[in-house]
């Protein structure tokens, strides 16, 4: 089974005073390096990292790693552009894929076990989508069968993978992931998170 991984890291972190959330450090690693290392600990290749707003600061974090870095020059037009850019990069390097796994940089508790479980449920459930369940909803990390590639490519504006998940509740399996509710969108979110884990 060929599963590709796409890490979306192109955002401007506008609610963090434009400080790149990708470079927030926790336990000696930036959030970006943490999620990339987690992805590389699985067999899911290629690993594509979509950069954009802070590419000059973010890309050096990935020096020497076996990942494909792709620049989303249209990041200002919304999350959908990163989804499309990532998918294009996957197909440039690996046309024969069964499914695509999407990850974000601001979910620090994502680990290898969760990603392997998403793949296992995909194999065993027969569902076309396997999403993480948290905060009374479903979201990423999420895995999409190749049959959903066309719909992912048709996303517009700030719509992301979650829109496709919610469009197909009958074809979606859930993997519980309570720590997914940790959301590092604002300065207060980050301070609260770092304070909790330090204290």
How is this structure best described in words?
The protein has 199 residues and is of the alpha/beta class. It has one domain (3-198): Spore Coat Polysaccharide Biosynthesis Protein SpsA, Chain A (Alpha-Beta Complex), CATH 3.90.550. It has seven helices and nine strands. The strands form two sheets. The protein has a seven-stranded mixed β-sheet with strand order 5-4-1-6-8-7-9, sandwiched between helices. The chain has a two-stranded antiparallel sheet with strand order 2-3. The longest helix is centred in the middle third of the chain and has 15 residues, at 79-93. The protein is globular, with a radius of gyration of 16 Å. The termini are far apart. The mean pLDDT is 93.
Name the descriptors.
single chain, 199 residues, alpha/beta, Spore Coat Polysaccharide Biosynthesis Protein SpsA, Chain A, seven-stranded mixed sheet
């Amino acid at each position: 089974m060929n599963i590709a991984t796409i890490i979306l890291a192109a955002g401007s972190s506008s609610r963090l005073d434009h400080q790149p959330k990708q470079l927030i450090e926790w336990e000696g690693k930036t959030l970006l390096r943490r999620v990339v290392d987690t992805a590389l600990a699985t067999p899911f290749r290629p690993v594509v990292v979509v950069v954009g707003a802070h590419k000059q600061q973010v890309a050096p974090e990935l020096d020497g790693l076996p990942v494909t870095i792709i620049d989303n020059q249209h990041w200002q037009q919304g999350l959908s552009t990163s989804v499309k850019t990532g998918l294009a990069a996957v197909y440039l390097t690996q046309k024969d894929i069964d499914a695509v796994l999407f990850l974000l940089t601001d979910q620090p508790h994502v680990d290898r076990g969760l990603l392997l479980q998403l793949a296992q449920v995909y194999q065993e459930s027969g569902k076309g989508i396997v999403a993480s369940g948290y905060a009374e909803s479903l979201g990423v990390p999420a895995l999409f069968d190749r049959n959903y590639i066309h719909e992912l490519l048709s996303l517009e504006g700030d719509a992301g993978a979650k829109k496709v998940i919610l469009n197909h509740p009958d074809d979606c399996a859930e993997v519980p992931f309570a720590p997914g509710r940790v959301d590092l969108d604002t300065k207060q979110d980050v301070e609260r998170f770092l304070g909790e884990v330090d204290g």
